[in-house]
Design brief:
The chain is built from 2 helices and 8 strands. It is an alpha+beta fold.
């Protein structure tokens, strides 16, 4: 099975040895996104709500570059440095997703890159 790589200027470029997204078969694996502003590559200076929205905007841009949209996401993995922010994730998700919602896992972690409070990765299904 061949892999196809996707990248867009509408989402932050990789800050390490990874791709924004890689397709294998009908699945597109979207690397973890943090609240970086694509144009500046700086962390969004805002509330946790605004930072989570930035993350979903980045994910949406990558989905579109790979020929899909948020509705095509089948699984999300949410990493939070403070699980007290989990209700904010739910509230923001209700603005970005409709039922049926993607499967999801959420984990509390000690730290994330650039000391951000949230990182989210996604798996999207697309049909060629």
């Amino acid at each position: 099975m061949s892999k196809k790589v996707f990248a867009t200027d509408e989402a932050p470029s990789a800050i390490g040895t990874y791709s924004q997204a890689v397709q294998a078969g009908e699945l597109v694996f979207i690397s973890g996104q943090i609240p970086l502003v694509p144009q500046t590559m700086e962390v969004l200076d805002g509330s946790v709500d605004e930072q989570i929205r930035r993350v979903f905007d980045n994910i949406q841009a990558i989905c579109q570059a790979a020929g899909g949209d948020l509705d095509d996401i089948v699984k999300l993995t949410v990493l939070l440095t403070d699980l007290a922010d989990f209700p904010v994730v739910n509230a923001v998700m209700s603005d970005y997703f409709t039922e049926p919602y993607p499967a999801r896992a959420a984990y509390g972690v000690a730290a994330l890159p650039k000391d951000v409070p949230v990182e989210i990765e996604a798996i999207m299904q697309v049909c060629d």
